[in-house]
Amino acid sequence: MKNLKLLLVGVLCLMSSYVVSQTKPIAYEFTTVKELPITPIKNQNRSSTCWSFSALSFMESELLRIGKGEHHLSEMFIVSNAYMDKADKYVRTSGNINFAPGSSFGDVLTVWKNYGIVPNEVMTGLNYGEEIHVHNEFDAVLSGYVKALLRNPNGKYSTAWKRGFKAILDEYLGETPEKFNYRGKEYTPKSFAAELALNPDDYVSVTSYTHHPFYTQFALEIPDNWRWDRSYNLPIDEFMQIFDYAINNGYTIMWGSDVSEKGFTRRGVAIVAETDVANLSGSDQARWLGVSTRELADKMNSLEEIVQEKEITQQDRQIAFDNGQTTDDHGMHIYGIAKDQNGTKYYIVKNSWGETGDFKGIWYASETYVKYKTMNIVVHKNSIPKELRVKLGIK
Q: Most exposed among 94, 255, 312, 370, judged by the fewest C-beta atoms under 10 Å?
């Protein structure tokens, strides 16, 4: 079951090839309340690298925020360096971390801090005969390599294994450059990162779960958090304050969420439909008496009409995490606020599945969905309300 769950996470993170817009109109109409600048939609295609695409999309918006202009940063520079670090830790821990293509936002920040960053035109990661990312073979080869190492046939690890692993990375993704020219100037990855003037230490992860004390930090117990990065823990109501405060003050949000829910439709809308007839109001309840829960759920998630959503509590979040209903499926980039025709709040989300769905690569996630299914967010520390920073000890 564990392996099946990990496979599901990988499949969801690379679903861009299978997201197809439907022709039947949806009932939802959205009006933008607040929208921050983003760079164009990217396509991770058949690669489980949503974490890199979404985090760099966020960093590209940060560059726009501070006046550094528009850049397309190299997702695969991040992936290559992260895979090298992951292989080293996997061998050092005798295989006791998750060696898979998925990862976390913190991985991107760590690579940026330790190795720098390069533009996408310098390292596209397409060094293996494809025009768009297809990582099935690549991931399988890397996994087979490190698993062979764990068998330790020589009784000790050779001095060649890291060079061999790096050679695989270089053959598929291209070599990570020591120097490069970009817009008329020569850089190293670290000098380019310095030029961009974003400090990875200014960004923090925040979550909301009750199995650790609030106002402390802990490492989210999810497979993709293989670096064991820690998140600040807030009660759900205070956690949700960050979203509006950040956006209204010019900051976007890295959003780690579960997209395996039926309510995360492939048409660009994410909702948590109320499928318990007893909790429906008035005429809605009368319409659905005697209808099975499954039929009701199918109707509610068809988007043919605007539906009533569940009321989500802190306990609901915790139960879904503890029983495996909420998993670390997908990383995305929140950059705005919208409302539907009934005045319900949604967050505007940039996905990395190409220009798919009814809104050409953009999703509208209801406030209820975000409250229920957010695993964690990463934000600039100044995009957290001051009173919450004080409670968390963030300076």
A: 94
